[in-house]
């Protein structure tokens, strides 16, 4: 079975774009990706599209062209983009198609995500009591983790400081001003131990990726950015997840751990062979916990990693090179695809001021969504 390759990438900047719908931002990204791949819309054989709050992605054919293309909508929490990509690469791996599209977009209103209990098989009282507020859950989760593994509040600040510093060089990022550690640590608390700079914000934006079989990629004359692995897993017993009404005393695994293990097995490489990584960072502590859950370090080692700069652009494993969700914001449908977009940029050597040195050859992305869904990809050039 030949590899699936990413032959085109496109993005509409994240943040706030008045006067433009989420779907229109998705269309912008698709047209950019088609241009990057050197193909026209009628050549696309299928598409998977994701959006949480900005309408059905398949309706973008009204603007792209009524070609009769097979177009499937995907909705899977914050892992929507990763799930769309997972589905798209399977369509090519099957041998049924040679050229397809994964696209995601969203346009969230200002304020917190409005998660509804019924969507997660929970009773109304669960929301009425305030338990659907994710800032509280994430704060409780990291407090437990910090206690168990000796992570300091300063490490949370270092993650946020790195994010805003990297985003200065990312044209698609929303917040592109550096914020120093003292300002981050001294900012108002949202949910202890998180200050306002340690959470991402709901946002707008769109990302599109054109995928091709290896034969088609060679025919197009594109550099071979191979999708060596794409996995997506749901939560196992005993995992501690968003909107979990309770937690087992005996802790289990997580969707991220099993998705990561699957991805490394598929790619035939280990964590120490990854040159750059994009990890889900809806809040600063998520990046820290996901460093371990994805197999890059042991629980508790993050304290030293961050203090020694190992996740900086020139470090041992650069993490969230465009600022991640903390700096880019999170339009749910597009966020996971942004990670892969950024990895393609890095593997092409087009990162400019945020480019990882040494011509990286491998790149990893991980996205996590409620109520415990994770998707992982590994790219190689």
TrEMBL record:
Highest taxon in the source lineage: Bacteria
Pfam families for this protein: Thiolase_C_1
Record domain Thiolase C-terminal: where: 254-378
CDD domains attached to this UniProt entry: SCP-x_thiolase
InterPro entries per record: Thiolase, Thiolase-like, Thiolase_C_2
One Gene Ontology molecular-function label: acetyl-CoA C-acyltransferase activity
This protein's name: Thiolase family protein
Taxonomic source organism: Novosphingobium piscinae
Phylogenetic placement of the source organism: Bacteria, Pseudomonadati, Pseudomonadota, Alphaproteobacteria, Sphingomonadales
């Amino acid at each position: 079975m030949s590899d699936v390759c990413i032959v085109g990438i496109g993005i509409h900047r994240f943040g706030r774009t008045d006067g433009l719908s989420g779907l229109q931002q998705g269309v912008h990204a698709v047209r950019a990706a088609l241009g990057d791949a050197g193909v026209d819309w009628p050549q696309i054989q299928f598409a998977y599209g994701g959006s949480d709050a900005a309408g059905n992605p398949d309706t973008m054919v009204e603007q792209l062209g009524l070609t009769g293309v097979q177009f499937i909508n995907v909705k899977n929490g914050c892992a929507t983009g990763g799930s769309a990509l997972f589905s798209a690469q399977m369509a090519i791996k099957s041998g049924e198609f040679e050229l397809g599209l994964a696209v995601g977009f969203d346009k969230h209103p200002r304020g917190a995500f409005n998660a509804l209990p019924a969507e997660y098989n929970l009773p109304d009282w669960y929301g009425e009591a305030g338990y659907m507020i994710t800032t509280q859950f994430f704060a409780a989760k990291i407090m437990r983790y910090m206690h168990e593994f000796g992570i300091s509040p300063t490490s949370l600040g270092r993650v946020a400081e790195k994010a805003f510093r990297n985003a200065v060089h990312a044209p698609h990022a929303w917040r592109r001003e550096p914020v120093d550690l003292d300002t981050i640590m001294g900012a108002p608390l949202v949910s202890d131990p998180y200050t306002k700079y340690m959470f991402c914000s709901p946002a707008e934006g769109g990302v599109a990726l054109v995928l091709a079989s290896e034969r088609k990629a060679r025919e197009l004359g594109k550099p071979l950015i191979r999708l060596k692995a794409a996995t997506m897993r749901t939560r196992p017993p005993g995992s501690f997840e968003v909107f979990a009404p309770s937690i087992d005393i005996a802790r289990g695994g997580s969707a991220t751990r099993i998705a990561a293990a699957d991805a490394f097995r598929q790619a035939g490489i280990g964590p120490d062979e990854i040159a750059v990584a994009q990890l889900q960072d809806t809040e600063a502590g998520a990046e820290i916990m996901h460093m371990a859950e994805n197999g890059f370090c042991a629980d508790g080692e993050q304290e030293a990693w961050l203090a020694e700069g190992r996740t900086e652009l020139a470090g041992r494993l650069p993490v969230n090179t465009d600022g991640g969700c903390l700096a880019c914001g999170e339009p749910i449908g597009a966020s996971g695809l942004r990670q892969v977009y950024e990895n393609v940029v890095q593997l092409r050597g087009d990162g400019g001021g945020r480019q990882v040195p040494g011509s990286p050859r491998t790149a990893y992305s991980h996205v996590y969504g409620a109520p415990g869904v994770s998707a992982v990809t590994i790219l190689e050039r």
